[in-house]
Amino acid sequence: MSSDNKEISITVSHGGTTHPLSLLPDTTLAYLQARLEELTSVPTNNQKLLYKGKNSVPEDATIVDAGLKDGTKVQLIGPTAEELGGLMAAESEHQRRERILRERAQKAPVKVRATGRASPSSDARYAFHRIEPLPHLPNPESARDLLTRLANDAAIRHVMRKHQFSVGLLTELAPHEQPHLLGLNVNAGQAIKLRLRTDRYDGFRTFKEVRRVLCHELTHNVWGDHDNNFKELNSLLNKEVAEFERAQAAGTHHLSDALGLESPHSALEAEAQEYVLGGGAYTLGGSGTSTPTDSPEERRRKVLEATMRRLQKEEEELEQRCGTAGH
């Protein structure tokens, strides 16, 4: 065998199992993926191969063109056919159960105590009924912990009870499957999927960052498009989360109970004010930079304006990276 045809040995890991493979340099990437489907039951269109030196090439390219070398270690990420079928069946079952719950709610309105708080039975209904990380991604237990923390967050539970939100499944989005999305609400609460991981799979996004996306997707339980109705309710949810946490920090649960929806900017203003009053940095770039001659009120005004711009930019990014609107 000539040196040009010397076999290339690679190691592919998936789901805790290692698969050593020896391939000729002219082996196509499509052939490799078909072989991996035989070994792991992960369909080729769901396969994501992670390795150093990876090149973006068509399926008919060779493994050498794709950047695979002798001794390369490859991480295969993707759900098996069985896992895909199970997820679809589970979502179908949850859709049926959610329909039954909605029908029951229409026939028997929820009883409310004299205190104005919902009964324990209704509290249990307005929650996330199932939590599932994606088992084919690395470190699923850490993903489960983050999902559980989100589902049990006192502020999130408060707004879910107040607005009577019910979600069948809380799970995650795989960065490689829909890389442009941060969140997705399926069928107005049948399932909410959140981007938990960094793009490189080397860690998880911050809790508050993911929780802000969760508030955005909970708003899609009511409104499908990012219109003014959506913006008002989303703003209200973020405001109520901030209010709840401030009340907890102050040792009281006295919360304002808005009779109508706030303006789209009210939650942003509340968060910006909290940033300023809480001692946020006063040195800002651009035209908002404070000077030694500024009065305390002028410095706070500049910080408030800069923070408002930052928060509004975050909201715009959430809308652009949300997969729900238009579905």
Automatic annotation (TrEMBL):
Residues 279-288 have a biased composition (Gly residues). InterPro entries: Ubiquitin-like_dom, Ubiquitin-like_domsf, WLM_dom. GO terms for molecular function: proteasome binding. It comes from the Eukaryota. Pfam families: ubiquitin, WLM. Residues 8-20 have a biased composition (Polar residues). Gene3D superfamilies: Phosphatidylinositol 3-kinase Catalytic Subunit, Chain A, domain 1. Residues 119-312 form the WLM domain. Residues 1-21, 279-302 are annotated as: Disordered. Residues 6-77 form the Ubiquitin-like domain. This is WLM domain-containing protein. It comes from Pycnoporus cinnabarinus (Cinnabar-red polypore).
